[in-house]
Structures are given as C-alpha cells and as structure tokens.
Amino acid sequence: MSNTWLAELTVDRTSGVPLYIQLREALRRAITGGVLPNGACLPAETELAKALHISRMTVRNALDDLERAGLIVRVQ
Length: 76
What we know:
mainly alpha
C-alpha cells in the first residue's frame, strides 16, 4: 500500500486543539473512512513524526488513544 494518504495528514499549530488530538482524529477519519483499510500498516512513529514535524511522543500519544479505542493494534 502506498503512503500517499500520509502527505494529506496535517496538524494546525495555531489551533487550540493539542497536536496529538489533531493527529488522532485525522488517523481515526482515515481508518473509519476506508483510506486505511483493515489490516493496513501504519508508518512507524518516527516516520509519522518526521512527516508532520512533530515529536515522537506526540505521535505515540495519538496512537495510544487509537489503540485503547480498539482502532489499531500495535506489533513490534
């Protein structure tokens, strides 16, 4: 699967909404909207952080929320 959808992910640093929530919701929309089909692999935390120019901890917080919600499963 191509990561072209990754180029469309953005966060707004001027928004009052924390970056991890913006990322979480963008990923949630991609998952529930079928942009990321069931079983698709997300990029690594470091790749997402680099692509969005945010910290890896911000990405980790967003992914933690998605995992708790049952939308993603993490595997090493």
